[in-house]
Predict the structure.
Amino acid sequence: MTPSKNNSFFFIHVMKTGGTSFAEHLRANFTAKQSYPTACITAQTGVFDRIEAYLHVPKLVANVNALNGQLRIVLGHVPYSVRSLLNKDYVAMTLLRDPVDRTLSYLKHCRRYHIEHMGLTLEEIYEDAWFHASFISNYQTKIFSMSAQEALAEDRYLPKSSKVPPRRELVDGQSFSPEIEMLRDSAPGRFSLECFATSTGVINVDAKRLAIAKENLASVEVVGVTEHFDYFLRQLVDRYNWTIKSIPHRHVGEQDAISPEFRNRIAVDNAFDMDLYEYAKSFSN
């Protein structure tokens, strides 16, 4: 079986929810030319442009709309509201994850890949104000409550702390002022993200935002949670004729020794995400 040609899909890839593992199933159902961002990437595409294609809302929207009749599946680390900016109707899909486990996974990712976080404890990384505000604090609620205007904006968290210019002025990412070079060299993880995913850190989540997030999540055709990845895949098979070679029961366990106090702190700090996650589970039964 192959997915019906009457359907094209938009996967809102929330960071550290298991979306990367989803890639193998995409290759079984769609060609590279049918998939975004693969359709826009060549061997000559630089790292800067690859990151931009997946994270930067204005670029993703422009790319996808330019390939309007070609794409069958669109993926990106972008807010749900991007859906309203696309010229074609896409079946929306997403995975949410237990906020504590998602946060711990993200902290480990930071320690593994960000020079500024290597050698730090997870608790120390959690205290990094920029990363906490941008990609930890009620992040899933932000992704599903941001408006299209907010998703397109280039507002920054703590704007006075650095002077990273708008993406359109960064060109190929090679020519920077001494101040920007200092930020790039001292905090390359933050720099690479601040160039493209600038808006999340300035969104303040409250009860109103949570209500919007729930309303938007309810309009997503295929909702799953990482802890029941198998159910998410079965929906694609049963409803949209996807080819899934194997459907494992995916349960992501905690391998590191994490103190109960730290886990509880994360849960309290992410109370809106905890609520949204419980709501998402109601779609995965």
